[in-house]
Amino acid sequence: DQGTTSTRAILFSILECICENKKLQIDW
User: Whole-prediction pTM value?
Assistant: First the structure.
């Protein structure tokens, strides 16, 4: 379903943002 795909994409985007934030915090 397109809805499932879009939802999955959104979740992945959020996870990527969280990972990036963690990397930034670790770098600091």
Answer: 0.60
